[in-house]
Write a structure and sequence with these properties.
single chain, mainly alpha, 10 helices, elongated, Integral_membrane_YjbE, transmembrane, membrane
Length: 222
Amino acid sequence: MMDMVLDFGKIIIADLILSGDNALIIGMAAAGLAPELRKKAILYGMVIAAVLRIVFAVVATKLLGIPGILFVGSLLLVWVCWRLYQEIRENVDEQAEHALMDAEDPTKGYTGAPTRTLFSALVSITIADVSMSLDNVLAVAAIADGDTNMLIFGLALAIILMAFAATMIMHLLTMYPWISWLGLIVLVYVAGEMMYRGFFDASSGVGPMLGLIEGYNLSKGH
């Protein structure tokens, strides 16, 4: 029971701290549009991010069951941790908060004659969202470890937070940067655990697959 509570806590923290780059890209793209197009850009950008998360979650669930993929996923999660570390150092959450506030204020951001279409802004958002949505889904899928209910919870929470509380979350993370550092520590732990299991697990680890070690039964029992 306690393990499940801790896992849900990890997912909540991961969703919170990994929403910053999404908010920054959507806010910056929207702020560069004429004021009358910004709300549409923010709404459509959130929808695109939500759809990508659902697609990636389905793919990740299938892939993580393949022997050896867990170790590869752990390496990707290490890369996510490195990116998050750089974002915390560069105050991305504060930039995202300002970008979203500018996009929501018709007197700020770009206010001249339209020089960019809504379609071009959404293309930029989609390209950036591919990487960012993958980060979020990979972290949640790693924590859920095959638990469908936990994966759905993490996915739904990420979408709800992004759609209804993005500016508030960015303000919270800007006011209390220790939350981001705590989240980074949690993700580093998840990546380390995932790498350990991805190498040493008897049924799916690369160590036993390559004949390097005998392996151990490291299944969480989901």
